[in-house]
Design goal:
heterodimer, A: alpha/beta, Purple Acid Phosphatase, chain A, domain 2, nine-stranded mixed beta sheet, seven-stranded mixed beta sheet, 31% strand, globular, B: alpha/beta, Rossmann fold, 4 domains, seven-stranded parallel beta sheet, six-stranded parallel beta sheet, 30 helices, 41% helix
Chain lengths: 220, 802
Amino acid sequence: MVHHAFTLAGETLHALPSGALHWPAQGLLAVSDLHFGKSERRVRRGGMALPPYEVQDTLTRLQADLDATRATTVICLGDSFDDLAAQDGLTDDARLWIARLQAGRRWIWAEGNHDPGPVDLGGTHLAELRLPPLTFLHIADPAGQGEISGHYHPKAQIRTRAGTLSRPAFLIDASRVILPAYGTYTGGLRSTDAVLDALMAPDAIAVLTGRQAVAVPMPR
Amino acid sequence: MSTALPPILTDWFQTKGWAPHPHQLDMLARSHDPALLLIAPTGGGKTLAGFLPTLADLATADHTGLHTLYVSPLKALAADIKRNLQTPVAEMGLPIRIEDRTGDTSAHTKRRQRADPPHILLTTPESLALLTSYEDAPRIFAGLKRVVVDEIHALADSKRGDQLMLALARLQTLCPDLRRVGLSATVDDPAAIARFLARHPDPCPILTADPGPDPDIAMLTTDQPPPWSGGGAAYAIPAVLAQVKAHNTTLIFHNTRAQAEIFFHNLWLANEDALPIGIHHGSLDREQRARVEAAMVAGQLRAIVCTGSLDLGIDWGDVDLVIQIGAPKNVKRLVQRIGRANHRYNAPSKALLVPANRFEVIECLAALEAVKAHDLDGEPRGDGPLDVLCQQILIAACAEPFDADTLYAEVTTAGAYATLTRADFDACLDFIATGGYALRAYDRWQRLMQRPDGLWQLRDPRAARQIRMNIGTIQDTDTLKVRFRRNRGGKPLGEIEEAFAATLTPGDTFLIGGQIVRYEGLREMTVEVSPDPGRKPKIATFMGTKFATSTQLSTRILRMLQQDDWPDLPAHITDWLALQARVSRLPEPGRLLIESFPHDGREHACVYGFAGRNAQQTLGLLLTKRMEEMGLDPLGFVATDYATLIWGLKPLTDARALLDPQKLEDGLEAWFKGNAVMKRTFRASATIAGLIDRISAGQRKSGRQATFSSDILYDTLVKYDPDHLLLKITRTEAMRGLVDFGRVREMLERVGDRIDVIRLSRLTPFSAPLFLEMGRVPVEGMARERLMAEAAEELMREAGLS
């Protein structure tokens, strides 16, 4: 696994190729925008049934990251569920799987804009988590410092000799990190979008996910 | 129904000074047959032959409600036929109401037509499918006696035709005495079309009109030889203009929309006499197309630059020359296009072929010989596709709760679905009802539910609206509307592909509707442009359809290359062939030639399979996969109808290991999992089958979470549910369509171990044109990862960040 290492507020962090953020000193793994239940929501509303494997796929990747990093704290940065009813749609298998992942770990669900209120799964619910010098929350605060957030599902394009590639990407500057969406059925917002452009400092970088984490100056 | 010409019609023919054609009377005499197929050349009074039984019946007896349904593949054709029918009906004073109903018909008129149908309704397969989805379909179609399917040869090759035949199966249930008539241009296998048309297992007699004299067809000779590659044929502009001047009206056919645009632009730059010349293709705004059609009917145009949008039979009156720019790829389509000239019966059609590049000179000559020999090409189409069946089940559910046994019996009366197994039908029903996934995750949210009485119905009746919006099998690529900026009047110009729009930056120029426009920006998902006075545009890459050269034509070309000399080919071509023979070799029918050489810092391999564009493309995908396994670091490839050019970091020396058929076939299965062609095929089938919504421009939103990525759905299914129905459909579709593995296999069997790998120090006369080809396909392999890291490092270094 080829990660990209960088520092934020003096702390060394690893942007993993999967889209998760690892803080080795704290044994912490952060993931954002899992959007569990996205396909279930669609079929509930009368649409065609999408392949119901996205929860399984997202958990498979999360499990692999946890096995590799041996993280003891997991923070899900909001929008972990697609809507209020999505939790009820989780299969027993998925619930058991989440419980297995939670066993022996500190697990925090940060609140997102799609998220349900109290969840009957294990773990702690917080609006945000402060672990000085870093703060973990769902939506970036333009005035914040040392902030790890999600919400925007950033993706970035890179032009190579063989054409343009587009991948979900971390956006990183001296004040904050915005994580890409970790869930399997999640779209993306280009880094060139005005909202992201306004949030990120001129010297921000984008770290593209995929087989390896690849850092480039943030495409504007 | 009368089988003799009633007096009112006889009188009308007499006042016109006409006599009915024998095949028109035959059609009338056999009007009681449950199905009839008429094969007639353009201008043979085909449409009247189709409608004579209807006119005879309506002239002699009262009829309430819908009597005859006419279905054509083109909206414009429906409107045209309406005009052509209304004239004789008015002249005879018959009380017959004729109306058309297409996507362009107003909502108000459509509502009225449902309440009070005309005697004759002219429509398209999509509009008909939509009509059958309404709860009141039995009332709309009450009394329907006849259906006329025009240009059935064009529909029989497509999913639109499959959908139409399923709709007719539905109508036949509602109106058991419905008689079917098919009208077709000359085809290679009339019996196949007859099977496609008739209710299975009804017989379908075939009537053939006198095909008329052979066409007068030749290659256009020019002072300047064609270029080495490309499809523009700009070199031929002066010669084409001279031909336009020498004729009344010329149709100038192109194989793609982009080529038509470029040619039209160049034609106007050279059009010093300002001859009235128009352009017509499917990406142009509807109003603009209608204007061109009207001008043509009024005889105001000397030429129309066009694409397949004019392949079918709108009657243009006095077209006296057809010019085909670029190799025709397929002899049957060429013959049909030639038939667009001289609609007067029994006059030879005049046509000229203009090769766009040097290789096409050879292909054009082969096509000319095939036309002279009446040797039409065609490949059997196979069973009815299951994605269309899935949509039919949704349509049935919209109309009323249905019984599965009854619906199965109904769909198997469509010829293409006659061999459909109950297991496949049930799999489609299960997919529609539950998603058909191995994981029964959505049992409480079934889309279709079985009621206690056994009938299936929509769980949520509101879903019907969304299902109706998704009816149809035409794959629009994602396109964006192009308009002039508001302060320029906001005039709509047409559409461009979203992928092309994404490459534009403000200030870029491109061609649309024959004019150069400058890209100003994107506003509410509409591309805003302003006129640009420049002469050289950045070119719009409309997708258009790229046809593969048929097997029969490819074989003719290979045979032609074996001749000792080529008296019918111009000197610049024979010189080129001789040079290729000297520095390398000419490809041979029973062997496979592969050239391997370095060029421009990369290694190249050129494989001359002559298997057609799609199969050569597949060969490229399979070979690059094998090369990746062999550590040759392939980077990409490009395919034409006759060869595949692969480039990478290491030279190819051992082709036998590369081309092992077993390994290739094994590779195919693995390769199905992750390549762009399969994903594109999946997207098409998933949309038709109803998994993904067809997205109209109005609904499309920009930004995050707007759409589900069909690529991710495909990846997920491959990983967790590899036996899912949609993946089976995708494989079947890809094998016969874009993948065309059948032709790869056929080519490998043909060459056996007779593979010649020639290592050369530089590129060859035959491979050189491939370097200029568009449509390069990147290989997602280690070489690419390396290049990505390399590009990233470079960027970081430049930015001073590393």
